[in-house]
């Protein structure tokens, strides 16, 4: 039997080896024919070696960076290669996509406006009652979380700011106590685009980018508050700075702030619902009669007439003037100006004559507006994905995300801040602007480094709108309302000075990217993040504030201390772990549930997995979408592959081996013998050779 071929020499000269084997076989056959009676060997086997170029070991493919934006491939036919018909069709198709995009964007903005009105119906009166307790608002932490909660309830920082201005003008609240509330309102308004980012949870990579692009706004606001609120409590720098500015300029009341976007959206939104927002201000200022009023506006055209009438008063001391005071028996009369309001025309919105409570109407509008919001957002993403293809996508991405040439590259971010401020001033809402760019971040048109300055500019833009609105206030409230608006403006400017000019200090980008990675793996964590940061934490701090400073300090102090220790240790472990004891260089000494989300992910999947067993999962995509969002789309979801599985594939540590086809196809050459068992012997040798080759 011939020796086994070496694997290392199998590729050296396979043709020569085959030729020699063939010659040897032919010679042996000739010898066999010449000497018929001569004895022959029992068996002679030659294994043809492998000369395949397929590698036995497959090199592991390097994972792509999920944050790296690809420029895309230009797969479209060039314009010069198209005929006339194709060019006309392409023009009409592009024009139609732009029209559809504008339509969906219009209804997207309208749904945000209606959603804000719906939240005011659901929690507006409660928000007004929260503002009533002036003693609690003197606590800066309580004022901060009240600003967060109220803004989350009404989904509008403008509404919460107007309530604060009304309370300050009525002497129910000082400007110093109102500053933490304004900071809280700045945090609460960032929840809208975070909710919008949840609508892109169907795709892992899009959700990673969209959620990071939305939460970079949250981290900027929270970090600014963590630094500037203690500084304001100690120094009152915002109060003194804005007071000096207001007193140095002889500012008079002017016209109302220009309404740019509302001119387009109001004709549609006013057909759905109209609110009387003065009711919330009246409740906050202590008007008990306003609690029984409905927020739904019934009369749109009214006539107010002020006349001089004879009215009864308790005693002569209550008369307007001694000359206009007389008595008739036990009655005392005087002349007094009274205002008579006459209702002329009813409003023409959908819920004007509906016999439902404010809560019922609000819940209906919340459901409908969220449905329209999700539908429009999905369609916007689909249209953008179809438009931003080929050369168009490459040009747009390079234009938006490319810096100025050196040495002016550092100016690009500041130009983005100005663009964000200008666009927010046009749409008059930071929530609308940040919610509109969130899908663009998800599909990869705008990177995280570019959306950060746009978001900072949006914070500036929304304060300029509030300043213009304050300038239209009457003379009695002009000073306070303008000072509060300027406090909001300089708070955001101070935050930008802290967290943008120095690249090392751009912590919101790093924190948002880390949170995006976490939520891409455990998507239920996005819901937990929203509930914790915008509801549970503010409610806990507010409840402890009601109990008093000692309890708040006793409970919050140790928690803050533990968080600081963990952060310091995390930095040391990353930078110089050798200075720590060996046990503290990693977190392995802690139980798994304290250092990893994987056990919690199993618990959430176990709790929410039963949802997918409901009958509606077999015929309705809605339940499965909820399952996908909450429990990671478990295997029990049977809605025609409505969403991809969200569980990560476990990495295989073994080296993948690819079996070349040559070992399966090559035959073993067997020289037959005269014995009766020649076929069985050849089959046995063939099996052994195949096993050895594998």
Automatic annotation (TrEMBL):
GO biological process: intracellular phosphate ion homeostasis; sodium-dependent phosphate transport
Membrane-crossing segments per the record: 98-121, 141-165, 177-199, 219-240, 359-381, 414-439, 451-471, 483-502, 522-545, 551-572
Ranges for region Disordered: 1-43
Source taxon at top rank: Eukaryota
Bilayer disposition of the protein: Multi-pass membrane protein
The reaction(s) this protein catalyses: 3 Na(+)(out) + phosphate(out) = 3 Na(+)(in) + phosphate(in)
PANTHER family tied to this protein: SODIUM-DEPENDENT PHOSPHATE TRANSPORT PROTEIN 2B (PTHR10010:SF23), SOLUTE CARRIER FAMILY 34 SODIUM PHOSPHATE , MEMBER 2-RELATED (PTHR10010)
Protein name per the record: Sodium-dependent phosphate transport protein 2B
Organism: Sarcophilus harrisii (Tasmanian devil)
Lineage: Eukaryota, Metazoa, Chordata, Craniata, Vertebrata
Gene from which the chain derives: LOC100927806
């Amino acid at each position: 039997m011939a020796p086994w071929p070496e694997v290392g020499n199998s590729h050296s000269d396979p043709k020569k080896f085959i030729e020699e084997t063939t010659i040897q076989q032919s010679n042996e056959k000739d010898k066999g024919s010449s000497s018929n009676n001569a004895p022959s060997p029992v068996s002679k086997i030659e294994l043809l070696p492998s000369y395949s170029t397929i590698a036995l070991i497959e090199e592991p493919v390097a994972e792509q960076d999920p944050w790296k934006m690809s420029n895309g491939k230009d797969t479209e036919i060039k314009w010069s290669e198209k005929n006339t018909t194709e060019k006309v069709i392409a023009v009409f198709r592009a024009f139609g996509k732009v029209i559809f995009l504008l339509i969906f964007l219009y209804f997207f903005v309208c749904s945000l406006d209606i959603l804000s009105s719906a939240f005011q119906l659901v929690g507006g009166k409660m928000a007004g009652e929260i503002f009533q307790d002036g003693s609690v608002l003197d606590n800066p932490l309580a004022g901060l979380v009240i600003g967060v909660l109220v803004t989350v309830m009404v989904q509008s920082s403008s509404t919460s700011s107007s309530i604060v201005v009304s309370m300050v003008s009525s002497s129910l609240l000082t400007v110093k106590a109102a500053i933490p509330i304004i900071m809280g309102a700045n945090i609460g308004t960032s929840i809208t685009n975070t909710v919008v980012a949840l609508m892109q949870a169907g795709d892992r990579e899009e959700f990673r980018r969209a959620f990071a692009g939305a939460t970079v706004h949250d981290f900027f606001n929270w970090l600014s508050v963590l630094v500037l609120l203690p500084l304001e409590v100690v120094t009152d720098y915002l109060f003194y700075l804005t007071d000096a500015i207001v007193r140095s300029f002889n500012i008079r009341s002017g016209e109302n702030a220009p309404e740019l976007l509302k001119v387009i959206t109001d004709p549609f939104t006013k057909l759905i619902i109209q609110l009387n927002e003065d009711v919330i201000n009246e409740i906050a200022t202590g008007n008990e009669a306003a609690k029984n009023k409905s927020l739904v506006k019934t009369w749109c055209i009214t006539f107010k007439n002020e006349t001089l009438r004879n009215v009864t008063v308790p005693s002569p001391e209550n008369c307007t003037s001694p000359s206009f005071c007389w008595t008739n028996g036990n009655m005392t009369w005087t002349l007094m100006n009274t205002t008579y309001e006459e209702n002329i025309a009813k409003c023409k919105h959908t819920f004007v004559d509906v016999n439902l409570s404010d809560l019922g109407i609000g819940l209906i509008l919340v459901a409908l507006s969220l449905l329209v919001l999700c539908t429009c957002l999905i369609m916007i993403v689909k249209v953008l994905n179809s438009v931003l293809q080929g050369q168009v996508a490459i040009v747009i991405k390079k234009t938006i995300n490319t810096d100025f040439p050196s040495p002016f590259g550092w100016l690009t971010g500041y130009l983005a801040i100005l663009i964000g401020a200008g666009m927010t001033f046009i749409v008059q809402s930071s929530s609308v602007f940040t919610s509109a760019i969130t899908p663009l971040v998800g599909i990869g048109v705008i990177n995280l480094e570019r959306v950060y300055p746009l978001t900072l500019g949006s914070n500036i833009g929304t304060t300029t709108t509030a300043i213009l609105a304050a300038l239209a206030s009457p003379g009695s409230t002009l000073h306070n309302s303008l000072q509060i608006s300027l406090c909001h403006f300089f708070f955001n400017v101070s935050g930008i000075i802290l967290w943008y000019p120095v690249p090392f200090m751009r912590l919101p980008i790093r924190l948002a990217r880390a949170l995006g990675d976490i939520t891409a793996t455990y998507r239920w964590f996005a819901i937990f993040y929203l509930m914790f940061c915008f509801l549970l934490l503010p409610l806990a701090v507010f409840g402890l504030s009601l109990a008093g400073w000692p309890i708040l300090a006793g409970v919050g102090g140790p928690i803050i201390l533990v968080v600081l220790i963990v952060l310091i240790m995390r930095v040391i472990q990353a930078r110089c772990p050798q200075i720590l004891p060996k046990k503290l260089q990693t977190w392995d000494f802690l139980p798994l549930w304290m250092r990893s989300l994987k056990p919690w992910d199993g618990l959430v999947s176990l709790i929410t997995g039963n949802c997918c067993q409901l009958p509606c999962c077999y015929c309705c995509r809605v339940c499965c979408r909820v399952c996908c969002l909450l429990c990671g789309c478990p295997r029990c979801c049977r809605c025609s592959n409505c969403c991809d599985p969200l569980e990560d594939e476990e990495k295989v540590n073994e080296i993948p081996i690819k079996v070349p086809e040559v070992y399966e196809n090559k035959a073993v050459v067997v020289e037959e013998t005269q014995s009766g068992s020649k076929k069985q012997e050849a089959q046995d040798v063939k099996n052994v050779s195949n096993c050895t080759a594998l």
